[in-house]
Amino acid sequence: MPTLSCQAIVIQAAHCHCQTLVEPRRWVVLLWVCVLALWQVLPAHAQTYTWSDTGSMAMARFDHTATLLPNGQVLVVGGYNNSKGSLASAELYDPTTGNWSATGSLANTHAGHTATLLPNGQVLVTGCCGDRAELYDPATGVWSVTGEQTQGDEDQTATLLPNGQVLVVGGHYTSIYGSFPLSAELYDPATGSWSATGSPAILRYHHTATLLPNGQVLVVGGDGENGNGLASAELYDPATGSWSATGSMITARTEHTATLLPNGQVLVVGGLGNVPLASAELYDPATGSWSATGSPITPHANHTATLLPNGHVLVVGGWGKTAIQSSAELYDPATGSWSAAESLVGLPRIRHTATLLADGRVLVAGGYYIVGNGFSVYSTSFTDAELYDSAIISAVAVPTLAEWALALLALALGMLITATARRGLRWRL
Questions:
Q1: pLDDT digit string (tens) for 159-202?
Q2: Higher pLDDT residue, 429 or 214?
Q3: Most exposed of 229, 274, 355, 427 (fewest Cβ within 10 Å)?
């Protein structure tokens, strides 16, 4: 208890039969002991409330997409459901009410796909299952089919280029003969058509693609044609439609994240090697080289990474050392170090989404979790969503009346000892 130090003084005073002179010079020390006891009553109630539950989606899903719309709402599209398979449904999240509502359904099911916000406010969804891309109009809540991809399926990336076109890279098409990585193509919103562009040197899926400040696109890691994790990286130049090699990562990885930092560097976190990785690397576009940075506290794969308004990067969930986890941590680019954040309120999750809202909060939605009782193991997708608020540092609960009484007793005892000591009187302990 916070007042144990002062209670100890009282107990000793009741059982000691010797006489002690409390010298005046020691009154400051005695007073500080009691003030410290008073101060500790309040911090005992300080807790960090960074995560909170918000409304649940109507449909449980994972491997879906979540896109922040210009009106501040979040569009969640497709994904997998344990009982229904790949989904054609979509939902809207309203941060002002914390509620979800249904919106128009797609013509095709989509899972492991991409969703890209176009300059005109529409959302382009492409990839699995089928070659037809679709456009969502937030003004009407209606979907329309657009141009057919020349290739493409799941686990590709889609990057909005400065010229308004969308670069889709890699992914894989799975058949009875195996899984085959794919190349690259461009979508032009002005014409609704697709066209081939330069082919990367290495075909890949489960990779990342990051638009750099110079307009080039950095494609990193993933699985190659033989299914092995890659350390290589390439740069796409929209001005020429060509690819060029750049420095390779220190560690081959797939199912990782890549985040553009405010200083122009790219932070790559976690992923899968032979096991989930607890490492991170930085790519410097000025030199085309990689360097190690601080290691996360725990491994992460199939996680999310979100750049916060303060420049920190929030990493949530994913595969840990032995299981799916609910932990979260923060990377500070200024120091290259990690610190633990509060864990999710609900179940651990993987293949979820994390979306930075207009007010700086982060919406984490869906995902799945593996449940096992020793006799059977199965995975379950879920509907719940949570909000991370980095602006909430701590919330201090109001002490109870009993705790206020203890605090005042400690203060009164300190004042009594001080007054007695300053008069230089002898008193019995």
A1: 999 999 999 998 766 544 445 556 899 999 999 999 999 999 99
A2: 214
A3: 274
Domain contains 10: yes
Q: Residue 16: what pLDDT?
A: 41
Q: What does the pLDDT look like over 5-15, one tens digit per residue? A: 434 433 344 34
Q: What pLDDT was estimated at residue 372? A: 58
pTM (predicted TM-score): 0.80
Domain residues for the domain of 16 are 4-47+395-428
- Is 16 within the bounds of a domain? yes
Burial, 299: exposed, middle or buried (Cβ in 10 Å; 0-12, 13-18, 19+)? Answer: buried
Number of domains comprising the chain: 1
Structure tokens at 315: 């990493």
- Asked if residue 318 belongs to a domain, the reply is no
Best CA proximity match to 198, nearest among 167, 231, 161, 155 = 167
Amino acid at 392: I
Q: Which of 14-18, 49-53, 74-78 has the highest mean pLDDT?
A: 74-78
Burial of 280 (0-12, 13-18, 19+ CB in 10 A): buried
Smallest CA-to-CA distance from 206 within 255, 168, 273 is with 255
Residue 21, in any domain of the structure: yes
pLDDT of residue 348: 94
Mean of pLDDT over the chain: 84
> What are the angstrom distances between the C-alpha of 405 and each of 30, 31, 40, 355?
20, 18, 14, 46
Q: CB atoms < 10 A from the CB of 272, how many?
A: 22
